[in-house]
Amino acid sequence: MDDEAEMNWSTGAGRGAASGGAANLGPLRALLFATAALATMGASMKTGQAENLTGALIKAYVNNPTINSSRAAVRAADENVPMANSGYLPIINATGSLGVAHTNNNVIFPSANGGPPAEVNFATGYHPRSYGAQINQNVFDGYQTINRIRSAESGVLESRAGLRSSEQSTLLDGVTAYMDVLRDTALLELQRNNVEVLKEQLRETRDRFTVGEVTRTDVAQAEASLSSAQAQELTAEATLETSIAHYRQVIGEQPTSLAPVKPIAQPLPRTLPEAVRISQIEHPQVVEDLHAVDVAELAVKVAEGALYPKVSLTGAVTQQFDVSATPGQRAFNAELLGNVTVPIYQGGQEYATIRQDKETLSQKELTLDQDRDLVRRNVVQFWGQNQAQVGVIRAARASVSANEVALAGVREEAKVGQRTTLDVLNAQQALLQARSNLVIAEHDAVVYSYSLLSAIGRLNAPTLGLAVSEYDPRVHFNQVKSKLWGVRTPDGK
Asked: How many CA atoms lie within 13 A of 200 on its CB side?
């Protein structure tokens, strides 16, 4: 983009007033209206120091809930790695028991001399108790653990790409919200100036009607134009309030006086083929899909591991007291067992899982192809829009200049009766539309340039030169990847 595309909201608003009256208002009046255009935001936004786009994007990068939520999702994905690593580690359990028992036995002894048998009662109370420990160690599980670890690591990389995508979307949303407030502020000022011009036009028309220079029809036309302009002013106010609310949602603060912005140019590729090539490699959505394919492929290998034999070791020690209902009797047991499990048939669930995971892998590969095509389409779209916007702005400025001349001529011709009031009103509306188109074109030039940078995958804090500490997801990953115990979450920032 060249300097023609530079945003100049104050100039646009000043022109809207400069030729709006019955005569040429002059440079001083134009300057006053330009100042009023910049001050309009004070009526709808909190007053404060001027805000620039870089400062607004820094606030969004640090405080936006969407980005922070994605960062939390990455930290959650990091925990899958130590979870997968646990398959190599032993499982140790301690056991213990304590109870109270009572035994009451009746024993009958036959009489030696043929008399009645003797009955003897034995009552015993005891406290059976034990403690021990058991350890289980996986030796071989069909390569499931190693594949789960690889899958978890690919999942971490996938979530990091998702974070980059979230950051891109939020930063682009921040640019759009910023430019929407600028655009709608300028459009509202144009509508307000238009209302003032039409009020003056109506007053002049009524004066001319009083002296018989125009008809009642001319007065009605002026009144209708004023009523329509007042309705458009109310609509513009509502639109600006909506844009302010969007800005508050993305940036986290109410907008103050926003500084003008130029379209971004330096980080953009020189040619369209280069832009497409970069997007197919660097765009976060493509990178995320590539890692998703890796995760799906490893899921197939994990499922196939269920068909392999499994080998494990189990060790246990147990100390028992009051064994076999005998008070004081103790027993100590220690064992070490090797276990081998060979799956033969478990109802077909493992086979169905393998087939299902293979279909999921195919789905992820097709999604990758689909997203690559979508990314390429977006690059081509925003490249064309970004290139065309230079000509659009040039044409919009020429339209404004031509309509200014036309309005001045129609006004002069109306004074000598060669033009009607309706001609003047139409010329005024044509000029208003031309100025509005220029404001919109300058807004779109900035948004399209940042959209192109996002489409190739490079809309991020380093590229934009944001003076902010970039979030590094590797910090949290390194804190938890070898963590063996503990429930407190590290900072990770």
From this structure: 14
